[in-house]
Structure to design on (180 residues):
């Protein structure tokens, strides 16, 4: 069952302020396929449960496939009202597991389109939080990383791995990485 009371207030600058007065509900998915308008990606075979409670959305054992990449996601996103109103940051606390991720599957543009455009960021600058990752194989163009595991901290557009480990080219690697 679900119970929602959300007020949307249009503002003078054409944005909308959302005030969540009450939200409580669950959505269980079994084999759902989604493709957004003007997006080449297809999110397929989505399974698991989400819940919306007050100002947070939770993901319980969500699995999905994007092209050849698979994902299992558990966790919580908080501060939804301020984030969607443009007044605050989205807060995340997520666990991500995968057998295989090809980063090319995640983008909405081809490599040639990216090269022809000015610098664009994949991540918005208003998401903060922690993501624990456990990825068996990660492919980035011609590079492959195996057994990629560690904590990832999102702080605006800065991605910080205070501890990360992986295998690449037959060598074990352990350390920290900060991407600004």
């Amino acid at each position: 069952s679900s119970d929602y009371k959300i007020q949307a207030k249009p503002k003078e600058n054409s944005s909308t302020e959302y005030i969540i007065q009450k939200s409580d509900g669950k959505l269980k998915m079994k084999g759902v396929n989604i493709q957004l308008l003007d997006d080449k990606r297809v999110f397929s075979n989505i399974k698991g449960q989400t819940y919306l409670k007050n100002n947070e959305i939770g993901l319980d054992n969500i699995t999905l496939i994007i092209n050849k990449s698979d994902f299992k996601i558990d966790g919580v996103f908080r501060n939804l009202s301020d984030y969607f109103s443009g007044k605050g940051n989205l807060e995340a606390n997520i666990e991500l597991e995968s057998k295989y991720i090809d980063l090319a599957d995640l983008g909405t543009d081809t490599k040639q389109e990216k090269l022809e455009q000015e610098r664009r960021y994949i991540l918005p600058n208003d998401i903060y939080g922690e993501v624990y990752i456990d990825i068996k194989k990660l492919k980035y163009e011609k590079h492959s990383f195996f057994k990629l595991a560690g904590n990832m901290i999102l702080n605006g557009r800065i991605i910080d791995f205070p501890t990360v480990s992986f295998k690449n080219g037959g060598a074990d690697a352990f350390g920290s990485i900060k991407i600004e």
